[in-house]
Amino acid sequence: MSRIKDFLNRTVMNLKATVSRFPLVLIFLAFLTITMSITIENNFSNEELLGRLVFTGIFGALLATAVQFALERFKSLTKYTLLLHGATLLLSVIYYYFMTNDDISQAMVVHLFVISFALFAAYLYLPSAKNEINFGKVALSHFKAAFTAILYGVVLFLGFAAILGAVDILLYNFDSKIYSHTANIAYTFFTPVYYLSLLPKFNSKDEYDIKKDEASYSYPKVLEILVSNIMIPLISIFSVVLIVYFLKILITGIWPVGQVGPMVLGYSATGYFIYILSSNLDNRFSLMYRKTFPVVLIPLAAMQLVSSYIRVEAYGITESRYYVILFGIFSLVCALVLIFSKKKNPNTIVLLSAIFALMSIIPPVDAFTVSQKSQESRLEEILLRNNMLADNEIVPNKDISKEDKYEITNISDYLARMGYLRDIEWFPEEYITDSGYYRNFAVIYGFSPYYDSYIPGEEPRYAYASLNDSIAIDVSGYDKFIKVNIFSRANQSVAVGTFEIDGVKYTVEQKTDASGYITLEILNDSDNILIVIPMKELTDRLFEEFGSRTLLPPEDLTIDAKGESIKLKIIASEINIDRTDDNVYMGGNLFLFVSVQ
């Protein structure tokens, strides 16, 4: 009982100390928690405001934490405490107005992630700045505190959820939102506050703080076994696999272009994480790993950069490729520093990571500016090569190769998705909005969007098309409209629709041959076949002209047919085809316009 009492007393003392140590951080966390609670109560009805406030709260909490660690490391800054806290609030307001907007874009998310990572790396580094204390001990303290806080947060949420569930079933019916509120309090407020409460005052000379530091710096035996006997051997084996692959590349001269980048990136990130965790271990495995990892990483990171260069040469730079290349350069620089530095302090890793992260969001070398310019240049080059750009205006041209249609479609979609079209001086201003761009793609370029990845000599397998419902359909001359669903049923005939004109009942039948191709037949009430319409005509047209996925006007999805006593117009509102050498699967929704003579 006394141990539980001691634990509770120690926890209360830590939490009280956290309030006085991180007051501004707690204000931001409370702000985040309240914002989330209001949003939960409103059924997440104002997601735009939620996004802006939450993003600002996260930024403010991390910045306030970094400022507190700076104040503790550099005592000369203490006299400016109020000024620095005021600057934190001001920068948070600036972040809200200039770094967020109502539409939660990809750029907004990436900026928050990168800034958050840089601030986290900064407050991780600050206690050991100028080698004041051993960085390995600082990193271990953060790791233990984070692991413990997350574990306690999960247990707290599950415990309260179980209690509330029991009360809800047995005694009183709760609103289901109570579980969301519980999760919000447990994860948004309690977990980060408890994490902070477990962190020692790294640079304090107070006797109580020094004792807390020593307890925080102790390396758990379980963690030591995990790092030394499991993680290091596993990553060493993975290193051997990558080295053998690297030697294979040197022998064959065939460089990979896709799979290596993310794989080496993950290997590098994991390797540096293990390097930091093992920096205070003196066993044989840890010492050997710290000596060999930077050396092994250099050729692997170089291989990743060459692979990324090949891909950039072919497809230009995007945000993801930018960060893969940046991380490759970061890995090389860190490896060289760890090899040639005398002290080999791993705090260099987090310091450099913060610098590289901030560099990636500062124009004109930031990920978004570089990616935008790269893709805009690629699109311009393709248009000029096809005589589709003259006098700063796009000239529509449908008679270009499938490969160029595919490239134009994908680059334009990327520029539209990222909101970059408005910055291209030769792109029609009236079509820069999402709806304007997608609805008028064929007007802009002269052909419908083409999404079939073109490989010379290889027939495409998939095709998908849907009707552009913003374009009016001419239905003059027809008496009846029905909608039918079709899908392949090998060697089967099935009725998919019926209609009645002038008291006569007609049936629409779908017949599927052994290969999966569908034919539609219209029968009268005497079961006489009035007209036969093979759907293969439409499917072949999709593969030959439009590609695997596209939004098309009615005329490109239409089959006109005429019999002795009936006239028919079929328009596919949505159609999907998957074909192999021997079989085909067809499925979709069709509009049928019928006139009986």
The largest sheet is: 6 strands, mixed
Number of strands: 12
Distance between the termini: 94 Å
Low-confidence stretches are none
Q: Which band does the percent of strand residues land in?
A: 5-15%
Please tell me the overall pLDDT.
Answer: 85
Helix percent reads: 55-70%
Number of helices: 18
What sort of overall outline do the alpha carbons produce when their principal axes are compared? elongated
Radius of gyration: 32 Å
Helix and strand string, N-terminal first?
A: HHHHHHHHHHHHHHEEHHHEEEEEEHEEEE
Based on secondary structure, the structural category is alpha+beta
What this model shows, in words?
About 60% of the residues lie in helices and about 15% in strands. The protein has 18 helices and twelve strands. Strands 3, 4, 9, 10, 11 and 12 form a six-stranded mixed β-sheet that branches. A hairpin with a 2-residue loop joins strand 1 (about 390) and strand 2. The longest helix is centred in the N-terminal third of the chain and has 36 residues, at about 135-170. The N and C termini lie far apart (about 95 Å). The model has no long low-confidence stretch (mean pLDDT about 85).
